[in-house]
Amino acid sequence: MLPVNKKQPSSWQDALKFVGRCPICNAEYKAEEAKLFAKKESANLVHVNCCQCKSSVVFMIMLLGQGLSSVGMVTDLSFEDAKRLYGADEITLDEALDAYDYIQNNQLI
């Protein structure tokens, strides 16, 4: 969360500089590498590729009245994958068990 006396960013692009650096190689993110793939109220879902190590991270950046909050997750999803899978139906328990059975019975592991 930003301290109250600091200027609050006006957009998720501005907030990205506060999110900071790649968790893999510590390179600073370039705002032009970030792409918004979903927005709901104050929450922005952003995909960014590190220009140095090429890792990908999905961030949820929330612009709040008192500041900003963010959480990120390293992923192997491309921007197009993240956009396509956002809001997709969840995998059911039966589907997960069927996949497990298939892998075990076909000796894929």
In spatial order, strands of the major sheet run 1-2-3-4
Q: What is the CA-based Rg, rounded?
A: 18 Å
- What is the CA-CA span between the terminal residues? 43 Å
Q: Tell me the number of structural domains.
A: 1
Mean pLDDT: 82
Shape: globular
Stretches where pLDDT falls below 50 for ≥5 residues?
1-9
Note the run of SSEs as H and E: HEEEEHH
Question: What composes the largest sheet?
Answer: 4 strands, antiparallel
- The number of distinct β-strands equals 4
Number of helices: 3
Structural class computed from helices and strand pairing: alpha+beta
Percent helix range: 25-40%
Roughly what fraction of the amino acids lie in strands? 25-35%
List its traits.
alpha+beta; 109 residues; disordered N terminus
Which helices and strands, and how do they pair?
Blueprint: H1 12-19, E1 34-40, E2 43-49, E3 56-64, E4 67-75, H2 79-85, H3 93-105
Antiparallel strand pairs: 1-2, 2-3, 3-4
General description of the model:
The protein has 109 residues and is an alpha+beta fold. It has one domain. Helix content is 26%, strand content 29%. The chain is built from 3 helices and 4 strands, in the order H-E-E-E-E-H-H. A 4-stranded antiparallel sheet has the order 1-2-3-4, sandwiched between helices. Strand 2 and strand 3 (56-64) form a beta hairpin. The longest helix is centred in the last third of the chain and has 13 residues, at 93-105.
